[in-house]
Amino acid sequence: MKLLVQCLAVGAAGFFGAVARLLIGLACGRAFSQFPVGTLVINLSGSFILGWFSTYVGQRVGFSETMRMAIAVGFVGAYTTFSTFMYESDALMRQGAWLKASTNLIGSIVLGLLAVRLGAYMASR
User: Fold this and answer.
1) ∠ at Cα 16 (119, 68), nearest 5°?
2) What per-residue confidence (pLDDT) applies to 116?
3) Which DSSP category does 80 fall into?
4) Which of these, 95, 94, 93, lies nearest to 103 by C-alpha position?
């Protein structure tokens, strides 16, 4: 039952994160058409939100596990996965695992670009 409640909470919060992403992306797209400002704003604000929320909840406030998951995984996860990517890379750096952090950062960017190209290539065949 607990897992079901957590899944529903993550799903509900994810709905709001996805809608927020859509609306911000549309608003920024109307204002700036020559550069993907919406994606930049979403990625940076999502990274800020996840960093702030995880630290605040971890150090100061007793949120339930379900609420933490709903906000961090649901809302922020649907809003942007870039924030998780940055938060996990930062966690590796804070642990002194600079090689792992660098591998995660560079590998994700390079392999991500290759995956996009491969997907586009496969779709065009």
Assistant:
1) 95
2) 86
3) -
4) 93
Spatial separation of the C-alpha atoms in residues 77 and 36, rounded to whole Å? 20
Burial class of residue 83 (count of CB atoms within 10 Å of its CB; 0-12, 13-18, 19+): buried
- Residue 58: CA count within 13 A, CB half-sphere: 7
Backbone angles phi, psi at 109, to 5 degrees: -70, -50
Instruction: Give the pLDDT confidence of 59-75 residue by residue, as tens digits.
Output: 877 889 999 999 999 99
Percent of the chain beyond pLDDT 70? 100
pTM of the model: 0.78
CA 125, CA 7: separation in Å to the nearest integer?
Answer: 38
